[in-house]
Amino acid sequence: MEQTLIIVKPGAVQRGLIGEILSRFERKGLFLRGLKMMQLNDAILEEHYVHLKDKPFFKSLKSGMQSSPVIVGCLEGKDAVRVVRMLCGVTNGREAQPGTIRGDFSMSVEYNVIHASDSIENAEQEIRRFFKQEELFIYKHPTIHLHYGENEVKE
After folding, report:
1. ∠ CA 78-73-82 to the nearest 5 degrees?
2. What pTM does this model have?
3. Looking at 51, 115, 141, 147, which residue is catalytic?
4. Looking at residue 154, what is its pLDDT?
């Protein structure tokens, strides 16, 4: 099973969309392994968005990500990185397909309600960045057999 990271961004937190967003992942068959609310500081944002640090919109992005607490989650499932990104939709909310999280709740590129890891390697780094090992919980989910065929996962 694969793990990935999501961040429910301040706009979604302030709009009361946390439950709606998390329920989409759970209904799909992904399992929460860690979840917490936190206020992001300059250091973690500069590390997380190092690839955007020289972009003209970085200051605005950082300010927006600090405008309220965020919800950080670790999700697990078969092909979790790909599946979560598919559920989120493309980065630009105006171009995201209806039925995706961004397609239903975002009109922005920068304020697009959710972050999702874009690769297995980045997911591993991001999970370590936002969670201590003792904040992640691995347990046999009682409904796993309702979400996956017996040959799809090792139990």
Report:
1. 35
2. 0.93
3. 115
4. 64
**C-alpha separations of 147 from 21, 42, 77, 143, 153 in Å:** 19, 39, 10, 7, 10
pLDDT in tens, 82-130: 999 999 999 999 999 999 999 999 999 888 999 999 999 999 999 999 9
- Three-state SS letters, the chain: CEEEEEEECHHHHHCCCHHHHHHHHHHHCCEEEEEEEECCCHHHHHHHCHHHCCCCCHHHHHHHHCCCCEEEEEEEECCHHHHHHHHHCCCCCCCCCECEHHHHHCCCCCCCCEEECCCHHHHHHHHHHHCCHHHCCCCCCCCHHHHCCCCCCCC
> Is 141 annotated as catalytic?
no
Per CATH, the number for 2-147 is 3.30.70.141
Mean predicted confidence (pLDDT) in 126-147 = 92
Domain boundaries, the chain: 2-147
